[in-house]
Amino acid sequence: NAGVTQTPKFQVLKTGQSMTLQCAQDMNHNSMYWYRQDPGMGLRLIYYSASEGTTDKGEVPNGYNVSRLNKREFSLRLESAAPSQTSVYFCASREQANLSYEQYFGPGTRLTVT
Amino acid sequence: GDSVTQMEGPVTLSEEAFLTINCTYTATGYPSLFWYVQYPGEGLQLLLKATKADDKGSNKGFEATYRKETTSFHLEKGSVQVSDSAVYFCALSRTNAGKSTFGDGTTLTVKP
Lengths: 114, 112
Hints:
The complex is a heterodimer.
Chain A: E1 4-7, E2 10-13, E3 19-25, E4 31-37, E5 43-49, E6 56-57, E7 64-68, E8 74-78, E9 87-94, E10 104-105, E11 109-113
Parallel strand pairs in A: 2-11
Antiparallel strand pairs in A: 1-3, 3-8, 4-5, 4-9, 5-6, 7-8, 9-10, 9-11
Chain B: E1 3-6, E2 11-14, E3 19-21, E4 23-26, E5 32-38, E6 44-50, E7 56-59, E8 62-65, E9 75-77, E10 86-93, E11 100-102, E12 106-111
Parallel strand pairs in B: 2-12
Antiparallel strand pairs in B: 1-4, 3-9, 5-6, 5-10, 7-8, 8-9, 10-11, 10-12
């Protein structure tokens, strides 16, 4: 049982380049999330998918797009990377979109945009 | 909107010292409250949770009690170890959409 996996672990992009961050979970969870973590700012929600077939914006969606490919996979795309998107990105999943359930996090993708 | 405020760090303690990390929240209704821990180079993992007022969450010697009257969920441990060195995040979930609000995190360093 691998839990939540993310690829790649590290990435360096030049300004204007595009890339897709991949996330998969093997726990049969319904809800999935993308966060970014910046020093001193906690975690900020970018997009989430409460259930397969739905996606919604979080707190900081500008410059990102997402795809819930199936129940297991939830990808995050940067169409034109900017230095302000340098961050650590975490994917998470939750069994149900119910407030009492905890989230399970992947190990993160460390992205640097130069 | 919802918010979570944690005591500022970093916090440095000697092994076997008592730990308190304060967490207060602002939210309408009856949120669920969580403490997550992040070890270096890893993602967050659940430490403990409480889903209703007066509930006490506990795990690995850590405890926190959901206090609705003071809107607080302070994390405590009676005797910390070097292996407890990590970043601790307080979080709340208020809606069934599953969105959570996180505090900024408190870095704990325990010295032998």
